[in-house]
Amino acid sequence: MPKQVNTKQKIIEAAIDLIAKYGYRGASVRKIAAEVGIRESAIYNHFKNKEEILKQIIAEIFVTPFEFKNVEEKAKRGKSFLREFVVAYKLITFDKKKEKLFRVLVIELFQNAALRESFLQEFHQKDIQQISQAFFIMMQNGLIRSGDPMFMAQEFLAPLFYIRLQVSLLRIDGKPTTPVSTQFEKHVDFFWESVSLQ
Amino acid sequence: MPKQVNTKQKIIEAAIDLIAKYGYRGASVRKIAAEVGIRESAIYNHFKNKEEILKQIIAEIFVTPFEFKNVEEKAKRGKSFLREFVVAYKLITFDKKKEKLFRVLVIELFQNAALRESFLQEFHQKDIQQISQAFFIMMQNGLIRSGDPMFMAQEFLAPLFYIRLQVSLLRIDGKPTTPVSTQFEKHVDFFWESVSLQ
DNA sequence: GTCTATAGCACGATAGAC
DNA sequence: GTCTATCGTGCTATAGAC
Asked: Rounded to whole angstroms, how far apart are CA atoms A160 and A164?
């Protein structure tokens, strides 16, 4: 059992690789099958059609978001909570699998309605909820200036998204990412200085 | 002469439309020709091949950035300069042609090396230069707290890019954009409150 | 500068043997 | 669950007539 690797999962992995490179249209069933090491027709034993492969990949993009335990408690620590969040965000940015899924997201965002829907409703939404909840608590505890916590969360997250995009672009061409990726930490410092009351 | 419309330009326009919808691979020479109202073979009288059409479109993405005159003077006005900048940015976000080019940018960013290069070097770079220059002057005039003007410019522009992305996504599906687009103005207020010394 | 016609290839998908 | 073989379609691009 441990040696028997799932062909279906192999197909998904190969498809993610190829879509991240060539987009959905460019990632042909032929290429996917070749990468897995089977014939095109064998693909159809695992998926009804090509579209079904994409659907499953899209589902993968939106699993395992940030799941912080005890946000209520951690938020009281103020800046260190934000730092912890950004460290997690940075890790995801450099995670090989997550990076590929991020590319798929950006490439197909304007071409796939379901993906678009999930992005607008889930992608940052979950992060925003957590961060805005944390900001709300920080406001109550007099750690930061008052304001709309949701909007503040957007302001906090948008630069992270933009840095992530830049890092992903640089990594495709094998360019150095340090100048950009250090902005993650700088962003926390800048933001905290912007909102903190101390 | 005024009535004689350029076929070459028509091809470009049709290609932008179709690439914004289906991506470069999905925008076939066939579809482009059909949209223009000519045969595929006629396309090749104007462009060497399909790739050449994309090249010209990419070039269009990076023309006419923000060209503010007298940044030195305007920067002294502080917040109102930022407000003026964001008004221009918002206009571009809702401009039909620019919006399509923005979609092409996002779709092809991970798939076209030349586009990626230009994006990293030019897209925000020009904006960043202007904004950071303005921040530098504001610092000298004691309007804002001191810091790295380049980094501050990134912090100012990243949320604008993210709002633009959201607006573009909403507009595809004909969804209301007001809740998101009002963030443009809110962002200026929030940012100014973050950096101003008054 | 446009047309018709066609070459040559890659695509997604199915039928049927093993 | 994989294979071989094949179908029908759409693709980029070219040749040559008008």
From this structure: 6
Of B155, B161, B173, the CB nearest to A187: B155
B70: phi > 0 → left, psi -120 to 50 → alpha, else beta; which?
Answer: left
Q: CA A88: distance to chain centroid?
A: 11
Confidence of residue A65 (pLDDT cuts 50, 70, 90): low
Amino acid identity of residue B173, one-letter, is D
CATH code for the part of the protein at A62-195: 1.10.357
Q: Which of A13, A46, A8, A38 is nearest to A27 (CA)?
A: A13
Mean pLDDT score of chain B: 94
What is the distance in angstroms between the Cα of A110 and the nearest Cα belonging to chain B? Answer: 7
In chain B, where the domains are located: 7-60, 62-195
B81-135 pLDDT, tens digit per residue, is 999 999 999 999 999 999 999 999 999 999 999 999 999 998 778 889 999 999 9
Residue in the block written with tokens 């709002």: B163
B66 touches chain A (CB under 8 A): no
> Are residues A106 and B103, on separate chains, in Cβ contact within 8 Å?
no
- Shortest distance, CA B74 to any CA of chain A (angstroms): 24
pLDDT, tens digit, 9 for 90 and up, residues A73-117: 999 999 999 999 999 999 999 999 999 999 999 999 999 999 999
Look at the domain B7-60 and name its fold.
Arc Repressor Mutant, subunit A (1.10.10)
Question: Is the Cβ of B65 closer than 8 Å to some Cβ of chain A?
Answer: no
Contact B186 A119 (CB under 8 A): no
pLDDT for the residue A58 = 98
Closest CA of chain A from B76, distance in Å: 21
Q: Which nucleotides of C are covered by protein (CB under 7 A)?
A: 1-5, 10-16
Question: What DSSP state is assigned to residue A123?
Answer: I
- Tens of pLDDT, residue by residue over B177-194, are 999 999 999 999 999 999
First to last CA, chain A: 58
Residues counted in chain A = 198
Running DSSP on this structure, what letter comes out for residue A196?
B
Rounded to whole angstroms, the distance from the CA of residue B145 to the C1' of nucleotide C4 is: 70
**B39 CA, C4 C1': Å apart:** 10
- Which positions ≥6 away from A17 have C-beta within 8 Å? A35, A100
pLDDT of residue A67: 73
